[in-house]
Design goal:
Elements: H1 2-20, H2 29-34, E1 38-49, E2 53-65, H3 67-71, E3 78-82, E4 98-106, E5 109-111, E6 118-120, H4 126-138, E7 171-174, E8 180-183
Parallel strand pairs: 3-5
Antiparallel strand pairs: 1-2, 1-4, 2-3, 4-5, 4-6, 7-8
Length: about 180
C-alpha cells in the first residue's frame, strides 16, 4: 500500500510538471538562430485567436535565413503562436510593431513560441544586429553548451565556447588562432 501511495504521488508530481512547464534548452541567441529554419524581421499587422492559439498576421520585411523554405509555405502571412504556458506561450506581439523572429514550420505554416527569438526591433542591441547580419550563421560550428548540458570538465576543444558570463546576444566566434571564443562581451 505504501509503495502504491509513493508511486501515485510521484505520478501526480510528474504529470503536474509536464503539464505546466516549458523548458527552453538554448539560452544563447546564436544557438536559437543556428537551429532555426527561418529567421526574419517582420511587422505585426493584426491578430485573431481561439482557445489554444493566437494567429498573428505578419509581413516579412527582411530575411536573415530560410528564404527558400519560406517560399515553399502555403501560408506566408500567418504566424501561429501558443496561448498556454505548457506549449511555451503565451506569445504577446504588439500590432504595429516590428520584431526579429525565428520561426519553425509545421503543416505549411510558420509557428513561434517563447523559446524562439523574439526581439522588438526598436530595442534590439548592436550585438544582436551584428549577429543577425551574419556572425551567428558564420560561426554555427562553434559549440555552445545548452542550458541542460552537464558542466564540462577538463580542457575544451577548439570548437567549444563554454558557458558565458556575457549577454545572451554575444557571438561565439573563431579568433585569429581558429579557436572559438566569446566576442563582444
Amino acid at each position: 500500500m505504501r509503495t502504491m501511495m509513493m508511486y501515485s504521488s510521484f505520478l501526480v508530481i510528474c504529470l503536474f510538471a509536464m503539464s505546466e512547464q516549458c523548458g527552453c534548452p538554448a539560452p544563447y541567441t546564436q544557438q536559437i538562430v543556428c537551429g532555426s529554419p527561418i529567421v526574419v524581421k517582420a511587422n505585426i499587422e493584426s491578430f485573431s485567436e481561439n482557445f489554444y492559439v493566437k494567429n498573428y498576421e505578419i509581413s516579412v520585411t527582411k530575411f536573415y535565413q530560410g528564404k527558400g523554405m519560406y517560399d515553399t509555405l502555403s501560408n506566408k502571412t500567418t504566424l501561429v503562436t501558443p496561448k498556454g504556458s505548457y506549449m511555451c506561450g503565451p506569445v504577446v506581439l504588439n500590432v504595429g510593431s516590428s520584431y526579429f523572429l525565428s520561426v519553425s514550420v509545421y503543416g505549411g505554416k510558420m509557428h513561434h513560441n517563447l523559446c524562439q527569438l523574439q526581439v522588438e526591433a526598436s530595442s534590439a542591441s548592436n550585438k544582436l544586429l551584428v549577429g543577425l547580419a551574419g556572425k551567428y550563421q558564420e560561426n554555427c560550428d562553434c559549440e555552445i553548451p545548452h542550458m541542460y548540458d552537464p558542466p564540462q570538465f577538463g580542457q575544451r576543444s577548439n570548437n567549444q565556447c563554454g558557458y558565458s558570463p556575457c549577454h545572451y546576444d554575444t557571438v561565439c566566434a573563431r579568433d585569429g588562432n581558429g579557436q572559438c571564443n566569446w566576442h563582444n562581451c
